[in-house]
């Protein structure tokens, strides 16, 4: 950094540092205040909302029980009235025509429409008549129409006493026929409705029963069905009567929920096992329509839908609470938003009403307060920015004026150095004076030619490094489910270690040969020998011949290359086969290790063989092992691993390597290698790496 800029920085620090300190302190305090207020307010609002929602679900459960008891009582009462009509003490005179209350018909008609294609379609309802269905579920007319006429006032009375609760009333007569009140004039659709009912038990229900939520085929709405038996004077079961209630009529969303959020989601759920994951989850039975015009109307999903949360722990706790038929409020994410989940049981069959409230709606006021404070902080920062800018402009002008008085020679040196940095080694510094800066200029001029020479050497080494790195595999291979990974770490720009993966076809089928080699020495000569050996191996191993014959041929080629040079190469070849047999050649290389986790034991893949390049007459032993156990780990490495020295001169050793393999046996091959490299770096510390490191890990598939 030039003196001019040092002077500039000094003046800026003297003048601007106090402003920055004060501004930063105020900004930090205000920001902390805003965030603290927002956090406390948010926690308070969430706590109040949780307590409020819990009270709401408690009240809702109480109201729901009361309404269910009311419906059960009316259903039993209606059943007893029907028994009286059918078996001797009629409550309505035969021939009397039923006239529904005119002031309620208009309002009651609004509840009868079909939910189709995201909207609704009105249909005509006749409150003066019932639909009679035969045993096959099709519209018909009974010869004894007086029965329906006598029952009509009873059915109409229940309907108009509870117009929102009773959508349909069905009476199963002793002969198996059914009466449905009120009558829909489009009998074709009624036939569809009752074909749906025909899927119910063909015999009357023997006790008071609530159905699970189901889709009403007439309206498309989700409904409950409460059914009571009809008995004769002797107590024998003859039929039943059902009141069909819209889910929305029972499960009113409390108006108090809107105090917390207008975006609350109401869902009818039941704990069940998701067949796709075999996990216990919440199955959506019905969901309230979110359109304002269709409020309190519930729809069933077209296919199985499940409610989940990314917070597995809270979700599991909620499932356990539901299994105990408890009601509660919990906080956990829903999709991409944080939310409060309030739930209460609807019936004894494990159906729950679930309310999901976005937390962002609950803490909206707290967030507004935080944004206000942060806006004030931004305004403060803007004012401070103008002040700092004015001071900075003044200091810059002063610094440039003063620096020109004594930085001319320094600028010349800087210009020369920049030219050299860009590759212009012909640049020279022309300075005036013999002071220290002048002497520095002469030294730089003498340094430039030497620097040019070193740069040329470095560029050559970088090219060699890129070439050598391109010879190593980019991706690990896949072979019969084995997990394979390898890596080389050179101590210089280039090195003599090598690893490779060579797939081939043999008489026994397909196989994969894993090769790990170590050329004596380091640097460019070792890298050149490694490149030659790699080419020989790939061209010969790929031919499919026996590994011992291939290795002997490669050895002859390498002997021709290194004749009289004293160089050699150790090599370990491991062949994985389709028959769960491994073959290996050990050419002067350290034996590979095999770790069996089931026995916690290490064995070595030993064998006879000289390093490559020692003599053309060398022979190599082909070793085999059949029925390789599953989940074993094969380690092929170079001596740069266990012979690495720490700052104190201690060797890493094979015992540390074995302990690391034990500790990471459950990890992938790549993770094991990365863990080993980190362990070696930690062990090495500040000491220099004096040998190349190469390791290949093969994990056989599990059983």
From TrEMBL:
Q: Which PROSITE patterns match?
A: HAMP (PS50885)
Q: Which PANTHER family match?
A: STAGE II SPORULATION PROTEIN E, STAGE II SPORULATION PROTEIN E-RELATED
Offer a single GO CC term for the protein.
Answer: membrane
Where do transmembrane segments lie in this chain? 384-402
Protein's recorded name: Serine/threonine protein phosphatase
Q: Which SMART domains match?
A: HAMP, PP2C_SIG
Q: What is the lineage of its organism?
A: Bacteria, Pseudomonadati, Thermodesulfobacteriota, Desulfovibrionia, Desulfovibrionales
Domain HAMP intervals:
404-456
Would the keyword Nucleotide-binding be found if you checked this record's keyword annotation? no
Origin organism is Pseudodesulfovibrio indicus
Q: What InterPro entries does this protein map onto? A: Bact_Sigma-Reg, HAMP_dom, PPM-type-like_dom_sf, PPM-type_phosphatase-like_dom
Which UniProt keywords are listed? Hydrolase, Membrane, Transmembrane, Transmembrane helix
Query: By its UniProt entry, which Pfam families does this protein fall under?
Result: HAMP (PF00672), SpoIIE (PF07228)
């Amino acid at each position: 950094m030039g003196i001019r800029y040092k002077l500039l920085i000094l003046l800026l620090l003297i003048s601007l540092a106090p402003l920055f300190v004060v501004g930063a302190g105020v900004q930090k305090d205000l920001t902390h205040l805003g965030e603290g207020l927002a956090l406390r307010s948010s926690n308070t609002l969430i706590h109040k909302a949780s307590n409020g929602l819990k009270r709401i679900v408690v009240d809702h459960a109480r109201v729901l029980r009361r309404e269910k008891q009311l419906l059960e009582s009316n259903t039993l009462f209606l059943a007893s009235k029907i028994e009286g009509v059918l078996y001797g003490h009629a409550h309505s005179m035969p021939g009397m025509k039923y006239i529904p209350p005119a002031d309620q018909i208009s309002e009651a008609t609004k509840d009868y429409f079909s939910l189709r294609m995201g909207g609704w379609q009105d249909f005509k309802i006749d409150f003066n008549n019932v639909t009679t269905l035969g045993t096959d579920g099709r519209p018909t007319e009974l010869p004894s129409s007086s029965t329906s006429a006598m029952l009509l006032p009873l059915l109409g009375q229940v309907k108009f006493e509870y117009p929102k609760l009773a959508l349909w009333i069905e009476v199963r007569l002793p002969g198996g026929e059914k009466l449905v009140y009120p009558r829909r004039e489009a009998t074709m659709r009624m036939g569809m409705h009752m074909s749906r009912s025909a899927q119910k038990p063909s015999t009357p229900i023997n006790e008071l029963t609530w159905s699970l939520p189901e889709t009403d085929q007439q309206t498309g709405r989700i409904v409950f069905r409460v059914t009571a038996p009809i008995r004769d004077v002797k107590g024998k079961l003859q039929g039943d009567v059902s009141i069909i209630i819209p889910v929305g009529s029972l499960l009113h969303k409390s108006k108090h929920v809107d105090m917390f959020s207008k975006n609350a989601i109401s869902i009818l759920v039941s704990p069940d096992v998701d067949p796709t994951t075999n996990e216990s989850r919440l199955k959506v039975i019905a969901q309230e329509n979110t359109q304002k015009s269709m409020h309190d109307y519930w729809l069933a999903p077209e296919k199985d839908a499940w409610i989940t949360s990314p917070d597995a722990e809270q979700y599991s706790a909620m499932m356990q609470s539901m299994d105990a038929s408890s009601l509660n409020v919990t906080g956990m994410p829903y999709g991409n938003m944080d939310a409060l989940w309030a739930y209460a049981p609807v019936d004894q069959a494990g159906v729950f009403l679930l309310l999901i409230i976005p937390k962002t709606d609950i803490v909206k006021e707290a967030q507004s307060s935080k944004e206000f404070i942060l806006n004030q902080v931004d305004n403060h920062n803007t004012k401070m920015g103008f002040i700092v800018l004015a001071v900075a402009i003044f200091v810059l002008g002063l610094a440039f004026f003063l620096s020109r008085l004594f930085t001319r020679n320094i600028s010349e040196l800087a210009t020369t150095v920049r030219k050299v940095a860009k590759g212009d080694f012909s640049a020279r510094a022309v300075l005036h004076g013999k002071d220290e800066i002048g002497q520095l200029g002469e030294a730089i001029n003498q340094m430039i030619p030497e620097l040019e020479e070193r740069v040329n050497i470095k560029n050559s080494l970088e090219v060699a490094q890129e070439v050598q790195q391109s010879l190593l595999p980019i991706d690990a291979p896949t072979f019969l489910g084995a997990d394979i990974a390898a890596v080389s770490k050179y101590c210089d720009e280039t090195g003599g270690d090598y690893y490779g993966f060579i797939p081939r076809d043999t008489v026994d089928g397909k196989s994969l040969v894993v090769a790990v080699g170590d050329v004596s020495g380091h640097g460019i000569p070792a890298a050149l020998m490694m490149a030659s050996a790699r080419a020989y191996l790939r061209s010969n191993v790929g031919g499919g011949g026996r590994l011992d014959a291939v290795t002997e041929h490669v050895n002859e080629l390498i002997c021709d290359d290194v004749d009289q040079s004293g160089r050699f190469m150790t090599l370990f070849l491991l062949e994985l086969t389709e028959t769960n047999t491994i073959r290996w050649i050990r050419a002067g290389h350290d034996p590979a290790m095999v770790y069996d986790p089931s026995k916690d034991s290490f064995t070595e893949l030993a064998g006879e063989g000289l390093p490559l390049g020692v003599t053309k007459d060398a022979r190599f032993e082909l070793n085999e092992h059949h029925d390789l156990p599953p989940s074993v780990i094969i380690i092929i490495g170079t001596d740069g691993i266990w012979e690495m020295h720490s700052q104190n001169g201690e060797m890493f050793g094979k015992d540390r390597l074995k302990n690391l393999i034990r500790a990471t046996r459950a990890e992938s091959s790549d993770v094991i290698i990365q863990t080993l490299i980190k362990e070696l770096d930690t062990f090495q510390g500040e000491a220099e790496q004096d040998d190349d490191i190469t390791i290949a890990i093969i994990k056989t598939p599990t059983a």
